[in-house]
Every structure is written in structure tokens, then in C-alpha cells.
Amino acid sequence: MTFLMPLQSAILIKKQKTKTLVIADLHIGWEMALSEKGIHVPTQTPKLLKKLKDILVIHKPEKLLVLGDVKHTVATAELGEWQDIPEFFTQIKKMMPNVSVIRGNHDGNLEPLLPEGVKLLPSTGVSIGDVGLFHGHRWPSPTLLRCKTWVMGHVHPVIVFRDPAGFKITRQVWIKISCDTIKLTKILLQKHKIKIENTPEKTLRENYKITPKTRKLFIMPSFNDLLGGRPLNERKTSERIVGPILRSDAVNLRDAEVYLLDGTFLGTLNQLRDLS
After folding, report:
1. Element housing 34 (H / E)
2. pLDDT, greater one: 226 or 54
3. What torsion do the CA atoms of 181, 182, 185, 189 make, to the nearest 10 degrees?
């Protein structure tokens, strides 16, 4: 059995005796994008490194998995990223030899920046027990349909509250979404150009030897808490939500459950729209 436990902006997955720590959206080098706009912020990589090291010390996982967007530039790498990313992972590998990265949409040409031994995995995702994990900018592999639960990053979800005086408060959140298993199966088979014979379930079994089980999808907050994010309870944001899965009718984003990083349940996205 697989045990999944949120830890603020990380998640711990336990399969038998092996614990895997999962984080998403480091965006190392985002300060350089601000600098180009005249906003000068010192590198935040040491703070990210300390935050991650503290979690590793407390929970002692055997593996670390990063769900994409290690760096901030999309196709290339800035000078600061050439310095910070190798140093970040070199320090982490001293504590955690088994490190993997699922490629995100910001991770073009990431390979030269990663120290030897850091595994770079495809953006279509991987599974740990009955948990499927992917970044979220592309359709995941149909093989992940064997998992009851999916976890993705990419969105940097936040919720915005406004009081009657107009003051605005933004908080990072976890999003828990119900999935329509059959619709999800049909969509993924079509996106991977597999002709559906009889039913989506039968076609999946014939092609992948698995039965579809996915019913829940979690969207992780970004591990880099200074990034900002998408206020999902604002109507204009929900209408242009990123990620193909979230734009499909296989997930019920309207009634998605919203949780603060400490686990406090805030309500559904539809209920929270009145507070934005």
C-alpha cells in the first residue's frame, strides 16, 4: 500500500519501506527575470536549499523527486542558473544520493546543469505505487491510469482574499480535484493516437494491460514560495487555466477542494470565487 502525506509545499510518498520526498517548481534563476525589469533581488537559492535540507533532516526519505521546472528560463540557461543549479543539486546529493527530475516546460537544455547521477525523467510522468506523478504542461502517459491518485505541479496555485476595504491577501494552497475515470481514459488514449475499440477501459487493457483507476488529482504548490502564482478563485484566471488535463472535461475543477499548506480546508473553488 502507498501512503501519501502533504508536508507544507512538499509531499512524502511511502511505498513499503521506501520514502520519496516530492517537490515541484523550484524555478531557480527567477530573480534574473526580475532584474531585467529593474527589480533587483539577491539569489534565493540558498534559502531554497536550506528549506529542502531541513525537510530531508526531519523526514529522512530515501529518494527525492522534483516535478519539473527546476530552472526559470524556458529554452536556455542564464549565467546564474549555470552557477546555482549545479551547486543546489551537488549539496542535496551529499544528503540524498537518489535524486530524479521530471522534465517541466521550463527545463529545456537542463541536462548540462545537473550533476552526474541526477536522473532526468520524461514529462509524461512516473508512478510510485498507486500514485502517478507528472509536471502538468503535457498529457501524462496512459500507463499512469493504473494509479488511483495523480499529483502534478506547473500551476503554482494560490487563493486571493479581498476584504471590504479592498485589501488583498494571497495564500499558497493545495488543490484536490475529482476525476472522471472513463473520460480521462478516453482522452489519454485519443491524445496518444490509440484507436478506441468497444470501450476505453477495454482498449486500455488491450494496449497497456492495466485497468483505469484514477479518481483524484492533487495540484502541488510551488516549493519556491516567493514565485507568486495563479489565483484560481479569480474567474478570469480559471478561464485560462494552464495544463491540458485541467482544461479537459475529465476533471471537476469547479468543485475542487482547496487546502492551505497547514491542511486547513477552505472550501471549494466555486465557493471561494465570491471572496476574490
Report:
1. helix 30-35
2. 54
3. -170
**pLDDT for residue 198:** 87
| pLDDT tops 70 at residue 73 | no
C-alpha cell at position 239 = 478561464
Closest by CA position to 177, among listed 121, 235, 98, 253: 253
- Asked if residues 170 and 234 have their Cβ atoms less than 8 Å apart, the reply is no
- Dump the DSSP string for 233-264: TSHHHHTT-SSHHHHSTTB--TT-EEEETT--
C-beta separation of 227 from 156 below 8 A: yes
pTM score: 0.91
Q: Cell numbers of 95, please?
A: 544528503
DSSP assignment, residue 127?
Answer: E
Q: Is 105 helix (H, G, I), strand (E, B) or coil?
A: coil
DSSP 71: B
In whole angstroms, what is the distance from residue 232 CA to residue 221 CA?
12
Pairwise CA distance, residues 187 & 193, whole Å: 10
**Residue 270 φ/ψ, nearest 5 degrees:** -65, -40
Q: What is the DSSP letter of 212?
A: -
In whole angstroms, what is the distance from residue 43 CA to residue 21 CA? 24
- Residue 213's domain comprises 2-275
Report the domain count for the chain: 1
Contact indicator for 227, 255 with CB cutoff of 8 Å: no
